[in-house]
Amino acid sequence: MTDLPTSGMLEALFPYAASTGTMTVRVSVNYMPEQSSPADKRWFWAYHVRIENHGDTPVQLISRHWIIEDGDQVVAEVKGDGVVGDMPVIAPGASHDYVSGCPLDTPTGTMQGSYQMIDADGQGFEVAIPLFDLEAPRA
After folding, report:
1. Is the distance from CB of 64 to CB of 79 less than 8 angstroms?
2. Does residue 19 sit in helix, strand or coil?
3. Which among 55, 73, 104, 114 is least surrounded, fewest beta carbons within 10 Å?
């Protein structure tokens, strides 16, 4: 968990962003050629997510829901508890960062989704994850 930066660098580092209420989710994505094998129809991306709490009370991330669409318009949904084995509590004015990955059978696709959170009063709410592109460089 880190304090929120005050500079305008976040937009450059995280080109995809969505805000829901006092929460902002930012994403950057990188194609991973060393983990990809186009000859075997396998392309792989790493994505870095930053979840920022701009509110006055702590929130906890309980679960995630991803919608992943490959270049052939095949859609997969992934639901699960927390993120990368963690259900972080994000303090007011702080953020939580994690990195994960996504393999596809096509050189392009998209991801988007939502996080299910609870506030300090135990009330649940949903936070949008922005739509972001998965694009392998053209050969």
Report:
1. yes
2. strand
3. 73
| Structure tokens, 50 | 């930053």
Nearest in space to 90 (alpha carbons), one of 8, 25, 10: 25
Nearest to 113 by CA among 69, 73, 71: 69
Tokens representing residue 115 in the block = 């996080």
Per residue in 31-68, is it b (16+ CB within 10 Å) or e — as a string? eeeeebeeeeeebbbebebbbbbebeeebebebbebeb
Helical ranges in the chain per DSSP H: 9-13
Q: How many other CB atoms sit within 10 Å of the CB of residue 28?
A: 17
pLDDT tens per residue across span 3-30: 555 557 777 789 999 999 999 999 999 9
Structure token digits, residue 139? 């050969």
Query: What's the predicted TM-score (pTM) here?
Result: 0.91
Give the closest residue to 91 by CA, choosing from 125, 126, 52. Answer: 52
